[in-house]
Each structure stands twice: as structure tokens, then as C-alpha cells.
TrEMBL record:
The chain crosses the membrane at residues 157-185. Keywords: Membrane, Transmembrane, Transmembrane helix. The keyword Oxidoreductase does not apply. This is SACA1 protein. GO terms for biological process: acrosome assembly. Coiled coil: none annotated. The gene is Spaca1. GO terms for cellular component: acrosomal membrane.
Length: 213
């Protein structure tokens, strides 16, 4: 069977993971039924870099967090080693050897790591930082306060702009109404000035004529 596979023209699909352990398709590129260019004849295990960095818990609440190691079925194919990482000290190995572990939040943040081992070597590693009991509530309250303060500031600016616009509009309307209602008075105020200008012009012209004579 192995010799037959080696003699086939095979192509391998993309690994389902970018780190740790995953699977990929094995494709036949010649001799597929129905004259297809490619056909899937199976799947196989594939590996990426061992360190998968910081993982996301399966579930969490204010009291506890549930985390999982990296693996592909069947789960019992691998060995799992859970550790607590302590700065500047050796990691503390926990008695839990299952792929999933649930822990209660402590009074301070704790970093956990799970190593997935196969055939005596590490094939995947993932870390989880579990925040302290009061941290999620504190972050949430700070975020709520910030959002509320921003909303209040925006509402105050909007109200100020609306009030200012209304005052200016009302002022312009009243000015127009006043001019319409008192147009006669305004006209009498403007007319004497025009007449005085005409009279002054006539006097000036007469003086000019007298000078010429």
C-alpha cells in the first residue's frame, strides 16, 4: 500500500492550523474517477510551530475560567501537561492531565500553560492568563463610566448648539417683524437725512455759482 501511494501523483492541502497540530487533505492529481483533475483520497496529520502563544478560554465567568489544550481527535492519543508559570521561578506542574481544565479565579492574575505531547516530544503549547476576581468588574465599570461621560459631553454640546441656533433664529425673525411693523418710522428717520444731504448739495452748488460770477 505504501509503495502504491508513493507511486501516485499526490498533492497536499493547506494545514488547518498555523501552529501546533492539525490536519490536511491528501489529493490525487492523476487517475481520479470520472476524469476529475484532483480528488481527495484521505487526510493526514500536520504540524506548525509548537508555540501557539496566548489562547482564548472556552468559557469564563466572574468566578472561574475553562481552558483547553491543543489537540486533534482522538483526544487520548496525546499526553497533556498543565503548568502555572511564575516569573523568575520554575513552572509548577499541576496534577491535571486532561485536555480541558477549569480553574477558579485567584486574588491576583495567574498564567497557565498546557503542553500537548506526542511520542515523547512537545508538539503544541498554549498559554492562558486568568485575571483576578475583581479585574473584569473593574475594567467593565471603568469602560461604562468612560462611555457615559462621553455621551454626556456629546449631549451637552448638542444641546448648546441647538439652543444657540434657536436664539439666533428667533432674534432674526423678531428683527424682521420689527422692521415690517415700524417701516414708517424707519422711513421717516431715513428721509430727513436724505433731504439734508440734498439741501446741502444745493447750497454748495449755489456757493459755487456765486464764486464763479
Amino acid at each position: 500500500g505504501l509503495n502504491a501511494l508513493e507511486s501516485m501523483e499526490l498533492e497536499f492541502g493547506v494545514c488547518t492550523v498555523t501552529c501546533g497540530i492539525g490536519i490536511r487533505e491528501v489529493l490525487l492529481t492523476n487517475g481520479c474517477p470520472g476524469g476529475e483533475a484532483k480528488c481527495i483520497i484521505g487526510v493526514e496529520e500536520c504540524h506548525g510551530p509548537v508555540d501557539c502563544g496566548l489562547g482564548k478560554p472556552i468559557s469564563e465567568n466572574p468566578a472561574s475560567v475553562m481552558m483547553t489544550c491543543i489537540y486533534i481527535p482522538p483526544e487520548n492519543r496525546f499526553k497533556y501537561v498543565w503548568k502555572i508559570l511564575i516569573p523568575n521561578k520554575p513552572a509548577r506542574i499541576l496534577p491535571n492531565d486532561s485536555a480541558v481544565m477549569e480553574v477558579r479565579r485567584d486574588t491576583h492574575p495567574v498564567t497557565y500553560e498546557c503542553e500537548t505531547q506526542g511520542n515523547g516530544s512537545i508538539i503544541a503549547s498554549v498559554k492562558y492568563t486568568v485575571s483576578a476576581t475583581t479585574e473584569p468588574q473593574t475594567k467593565q465599570s471603568k469602560g461604562t463610566e468612560t462611555a457615559q461621560s462621553r455621551k454626556k459631553r456629546a449631549d451637552a454640546i448638542l444641546v448648546f448648539c441647538l439652543v444657540t441656533g434657536i436664539i439666533l433664529t428667533v432674534g432674526v425673525i423678531f428683527a424682521i417683524i420689527f422692521i415690517i411693523l415700524h417701516w414708517a418710522v424707519v422711513k421717516t428717520v431715513l428721509e430727513p437725512k436724505s433731504e439734508q444731504d440734498d439741501k446741502h448739495g444745493k447750497v454748495t452748488n449755489k456757493n459755487s455759482l456765486s464764486n464763479i460770477e
